Amino acid sequence: MKIAITGKGGVGKSTLSAALALLLARQGRTVLAVDADPDANLAASLGVPADERRQMIPISRQIALIEERTGAKVGRSGQVFKLNPDVSDIADTFAWRHGDVSLLVLGAVERGGGGCACPENVLLKALVSDVVLNRDEALVLDMEAGIEHLGRGTTRGVDVMIVVVEPGQRSVDTARRVFELGGQIGVHRFGVVANKIATPEDEAFVREAFPDKELLGMIPYTEELRSADREGRSVLDGMSPELLARFDGILEKLEKCS
Ligand SMILES: Nc1ncnc2c1ncn2[C@@H]1O[C@H](COP(=O)(O)OP(=O)(O)OP(=O)(O)O)[C@@H](O)[C@H]1O
Ligand SMILES: [Mg+2]
After folding, report:
1. What are the DSSP E strand ranges found in 106-189?
2. I need a labelling partner for 48 at 20 to 30 A (CA). Which of 39, 58, 101, 134 fits?
3. pLDDT digits (tens, 9 = 90+) for 154-176
4. 37 lines ligand 1 (CB under 6 A)
């Protein structure tokens, strides 16, 4: 099961990514969670303690690694470098073990925008492609609203792209852009998770916005998730059975037709 999760900033991508990764691990699966959001916060949602989070160095800042694999100097322009760096060992070597979940933090590429053909970006793209296409474990990919880490060749390994939406027009607009872009690069299954649902009107709003998309589940707006975040706990830690059932339900739906 390889799941990519996207959506507008702040809608609950990391919350959902962490919940699904932890639930898959509870089922006894080997799970790799990948934080592909430049503004990385998946570690906190997984419940990695703050002192450990401070020690994590994202792949985009592993300068020696990037230079060794691409044959280019980071920060220097006009160089010739390998477009197909060997990355097959990176997930095993650099992923942070947290209980039964391994976490790989990709980090941000700071110069020239996300699309630049700089060594960092080439390495990250190759790495995403490797974890999607060549590895056997369950994968949860926490992405930003853009889907630029994925390319046409990589999407065929993604079983489902989940777009998290909250009941608001901006998040719906972002979701529509993701569907369009994802469609262009060959995503074959999209799912919607409606998050932060507080009223029946919220629920109706999301249903009506995406009548032709698979609705995988609805998560209520709840103090439980806010306090887990405030207190730096994993999203599943102390979760009520009612809320847990919502996340379980999403996983069940995902597994049904994958
Ligand atoms: N159902 C919910 N009810 C209440 N608060 C929620 C809910 N889901 C997420 N949150 C809170 O909303 C905030 C944003 O959630 P989260 O970090 O998962 O979103 P994100 O999409 O990953 O954000 P970013 O784009 O910044 O990475 C967090 O404080 C989280 O605890
Ligand atoms: Mg996030």
Report:
1. 138-142, 160-165
2. 134
3. 888 999 999 999 999 999 999 99
4. yes
